[in-house]
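>> received
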Amino acid sequence: MSNFDVGIIGAGVAGAFATMKIAKDHKNVKTILFDLGRPPMKRRRQLEGWLGCLPNSDGKLYLNDIDKVAEIVGSRKTKAAYNWFNKVLANVGTFKATKDRAPSISTEKKLKKIGYDISLNDYVQIYPKDIHALSKYMSEFIERYKNITYSFDNEVKRIYKQKNLFVVVTETQEYKCKKLIIAVGRSGWRWARDVYNNLGIIDNNDTAKFGIRIELNTSVMKDFNKSNCTLTKGGDLELGPFSWNGTVIPEDHVDLAISAFRSNENRWKSDKVSFSLIGNRYFPNQGFEQTDRIGKLMFVLSNDRIIKERVSHILTGKAKVSMIKEYDWLKAVIEELSIAIPEIITKAYYHVPTITPSAPKINIGSNLETEVEGMFVVGESAGIHGILSAAIMGAIAADNVCK
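>> returned
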């Protein structure tokens, strides 16, 4: 029972949808799903186990994710996978896309004057009750078929290739798989780096993505019209999506908490708007290491949770981020943003650690296969962020790995 056609490592959004697609459309493909977290419908940790971060997310499926996937695999495959995903979702409810609003014309002009591009983010909102129903539906659906084996509460320690097979070494035993789908998501960013490094497939490790999460009262952001837009400036800065009427919460990563956002339950409701301000900073061959290091430093300074301080402290040099020289770029950005958002200096708070946890970049083909023949990578493991991206890529990889 230790030999399989396909091994899927990670039962988050991408891994779960890949598993369901194989169960339904590739009934003769013997598949094993690994995750160090809990199986469906069991009490689980924040990011690990069945459906990964989805139960703890804000529940917004941003439709711009569709374009991200299409850039890799093409629009035809992406559209087919998105339609399949919608059919799955329709089994637990009726969901309509919310069209994003644009900021006021005067605010748009100010942002464009200082060099920012604006992308609107249409989205589908799902709530905890929908996520619970989706989890139950998917797990019961998979159990109807006999080609899927679960291996939960079982950490994958190592992967190596032996002739034409992948050997997956776990805490309990070794498994042999003809092909693999890597879908470890955000909680597995360090694990993925180690695997990619051992296999010699890292293409680029020059960029660290870190910054702060800014929070203001909605009353001083009326010109943004409750827009969920994302602002970008070249390849160096990204702000957003703007997230309304929720709460900044810690997202736990074993030895690191990252500032995140929730609004899809009454207990998270607030009169605040927040957004991440992430800088892409250049560190030759050290991008991953610097992201990890900076996140851990801020975590230590926060006494093991997340810091909340006034943004004005950044300009006066009194902020805790001011102690870390890699944050020197932040002051100029805040001063520039105050042209379009004057209250950012006088009325805003910031939260850290705020990083984008990502494994170093690897090359993946239009079928989501890596340079290692038979190994496919999806979702955040492939550097593509977003819940909807993960679901779509999981479905596409399932079809490709079974060819």
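>> The mean pLDDT is 96.
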